[in-house]
Description:
The complex is a heterodimer of chains A (239) and B (131). Chain A has 2 domains: 2-102, Roll (Ubiquitin-like (UB roll)), CATH 3.10.20; 105-238, Alpha-helical ferredoxin (Fumarate Reductase Iron-sulfur Protein, Chain B, domain 2, Orthogonal Bundle), CATH 1.10.1060. Chain A contains 9 helices and 7 strands, in the order ββαβββββαααααααα. Chain A has helices at 33-44, 105-113, 133-137, 150-154, 156-160, 167-177, 185-192, 206-210, 217-232; strands spanning 2-9, 19-26, 63-66, 69-72, 85-89, 96-98, 101-102. In chain A, helix 2 (105-113) packs parallel to helix 6, helix 6 (167-177) packs antiparallel against helix 7 and helix 6 crosses helix 9. The longest helix of chain A has 16 residues, at 217-232. Chain B has helices at residues 16-45, 52-61, 64-91, 99-125. Chain B is elongated and about 55 Å long. Chain B is mainly alpha-helical and 131 residues long. The A-B interface holds A 10, 16-18, 65, 68-69, 87, 89, 92-93, 96, 154, 156, 202-206, 208-209, 216, 218-219, 222-223, 225-226 and B 2-4, 6-10, 12-13, 15-18, 21, 87, 90-93, 96-97, 99. The structure holds protoporphyrin IX containing FE and FE2/S2 (inorganic) cluster. FE2/S2 (inorganic) cluster (FES) binds at residues 52-55, 57-62, 72, 74 of chain A. Residues 21, 24-25, 28-29, 31-32, 35, 80-81, 84-85, 87-88 of chain B line the site of protoporphyrin IX containing FE (HEM).
Amino acid sequence: MQVVFKVQRYQPERDGQPYFQSFPLELPERATVLDGLHQIKDERDGSLSFRRSCRSAICGSCAMYINGAYHLACNTGVETLKAQEIVVSPLPHLRVIKDLIVDMQPFFEKFERALPYLMTTTPPPERERLQSPEQRRAFEEMINCIQCAACYSACPMVWTDPQYLGPAALTKVYRFVSDSRDEVGRQRLALVDNDHGVWRCHTIFNCHIACPKNINPTWSIQQLKRKTIARRLRFWERG
Amino acid sequence: MYRVRHTDLWPSHYNLGMWVWLAQRISGIVLVLYLFTHIWVISFSIANRQGQEFNQVMALFQTPLFLSLDLLLLAGVLFHALNGIRVILFDLGIGIRQQKAIFWGVLVIVSAIFAWGVSLWWPFVQGKPLV
Lengths: 239, 131
Ligand code: HEM
Ligand code: FES
């Protein structure tokens, strides 16, 4: 398969501006975009920089903006893009450190602010805290998040409000609010009930379209909106 | 810092939800501007108690240009109001996973009411309003 990879390059110490560099490639059938990037790095230009770790869509390192859409480079078949030219850019709107590597620091700081771990107030039981399969299903979707930051990069509210927690962190908050074992739900709701939390979301749905795991953060955020209102108007609380 | 031309900002890369959000925002701003212009025009036209300016302004609004702008206003109000209800439903947790279908539903209702509006508007174009 013959394609041209147009890759965004940028090295802050050297380049004034990011620019695109073209690499005509001969790739095996069923090669992924990540395979293409590796071929460039291994055979053409060792200075090309990008992140990847698992190569199986589970570590969240390789999210990129490819031919006008968000993808994990490692599980995107070049063929499936149905194009002669594969345009690869880093995640838009995040600071570029080098080539395809962006600064994930703000993303992870917000993730931490979301307290992404189970919290309880009661003493631990004799054995584990039990959960029925049905209770587990309540956050089946949200638990698939691999923190790749595609949703975060795609959200116009993140671009315009540097304080906004963003789709991934808020989805994580909902994941624990809806977990039957978690016992600090009300504090979690208080955490997101403000201008830089759920109320910043304008239901644009870019996050859902961007998500390579097909999670719908917009849905989770609106559930949190309802629950924060219920928290304020206690009588409306449905649990 | 440098300025990147983010290709995700090319309109050809927008998703439906992005277009609808932009349309809601633009129609909202246009409606605010219209509202103030409207109040201003009406207030200066009735400043003189003889009603002469008022009649002149009303005559101007019967010209084809202003009559077609009325249609634009109608479309903008209908879209903003009905899509606004779509957004409010989302805030209540309703229909989020059907957002695209609901948008097309909004468009159908907007078109239906718009068509009804055009049927009420047409007599004005012919110079014989219903009242
Ligand atoms: C029944 C009538 C209306 C409904 C149901 C409605 C609903 C809404 C909703 C739900 C939003 C929030 C959109 C978002 O979160 O992105 C909004 C925004 C807005 N509306 Fe309305 N609206 C109505 C009439 C009006 C009128 C008459 C004006 C102007 C005079 C107006 C001006 C605006 C403005 C400036 C915004 C801000 C734009 C934005 O946040 O994106 N609206 N409207
Ligand atoms: S390399 Fe781990 S998600 Fe792509």
